[in-house]
Amino acid sequence: MLSPEKNIFLSIPEESVMLILHPAQVVACDHDVYTAVVEEDDVLLEPEQEIFLYFEISRTFMKQSARIKEVAPEDPKRLIRFTTIGNAVSSEKREVYRVPIQFRELTATIGGEKNCRLQDVSETGFSVSACLDINIGEVIQVTLRYEDEAFTGRACLQSVQQLDDKRKRYGFYCIDKQLSPGSLPRGLHLISLAVQREHLRGLERTG
C-alpha cells in the first residue's frame, strides 16, 4: 500500500489526547523498510518508537501501526526509516454506534461552507453531503446546530465518496475530546443519543 512518493501522515500516540497529524512523504522502500521525509523538524521521533501512519487508499483514509528503525537528520529535511506492523485498516470505521440522520435535515458549517447536510453521526464523528475544497487528513473548524444551539470544534477529514455529479460524502473524525457546553463532542453526543432514542421508539411501535 505504501510506495515511493506516497503522501502520508504520522501520529504519535503519546503526543496528545487529540489526534495530531504530521505530514511526510515516502521516498524509498527496501526489503519492507520504508524511508520517509518528515516535513516538520520539531516532531519528537526516535528509534524503536511506535507510531501510527495515516494515508489514502481508494479515497478512504487508512491507519496502520509502524515502528521507527532510524532517525536521520538531513538538511533541509529529516528522514526516518520504519517498518509497518500488521495490516492497514480503515480509519473511517468508528468504534461506536453510527446512526443515519438524513431525515432530520440537520446541517453543519465546515470551514466557511454553510448548510452542509448531515448524513450520519456517532459520538466520535459524522459525515456530510456537500461539495468542499478540502483534502483528506486536513483538520478544519466545524459547527453543528441542534435545537437552536451551536456546537463548535475541530474535525479531521478521513474519507471522500462521490454521491453524484455535484455532491460528495465527506467522513470526519472529531479530534476534540472535552464534552464541555457548546463543544463539538457535546453536540455529537446529544444528537447521537436523540436519534438512537427515536430509532428505538420506532422499533417498539413496529414490534
How would you describe the overall organization of this protein?
The chain contains one helix and 13 strands, in the order βββββββββββββα. By secondary structure, it is mainly beta. The protein folds into two domains: about 5-90; about 100-205, Thrombin, subunit H (Beta Barrel), CATH 2.40.10. The strands form two sheets. It has a six-stranded antiparallel beta barrel with strand order 1-2-3-6-5-4. The termini are far apart. The model has no long low-confidence stretch (mean pLDDT about 80).
The run of helices and strands is EEEEEEEEEEEEEH
- Uncertain spans, ≥5 residues at pLDDT below 50? none
Calculate Rg over CA atoms: 19 Å
How many β-strand runs? 13
Please give the order of strands in the largest beta sheet.
1-2-3-6-5-4
Structural class computed from helices and strand pairing: mainly beta
Helix content: 10-25%
CATH-defined fold name of the largest domain = Thrombin, subunit H
Mean pLDDT value: 82
What is the strand and helix layout of this fold?
Blueprint: E1 7-11, E2 22-30, E3 33-38, E4 50-57, E5 60-73, E6 78-90, E7 99-100, E8 107-110, E9 113-121, E10 125-130, E11 139-146, E12 149-162, E13 168-174, H1 184-206
Antiparallel strand pairs: 1-2, 1-4, 2-3, 3-6, 4-5, 5-6, 7-9, 8-9, 8-11, 9-10, 10-13, 11-12, 12-13
Top keywords for this entry?
207 residues, mainly beta, Thrombin, subunit H, 2 domains, 6-stranded antiparallel barrel, 6-stranded antiparallel β-barrel, 1 helix
Short précis:
The protein has 2 domains: 7-90; 99-206, Beta Barrel (Thrombin, subunit H). The chain is 11% helix and 51% strand.
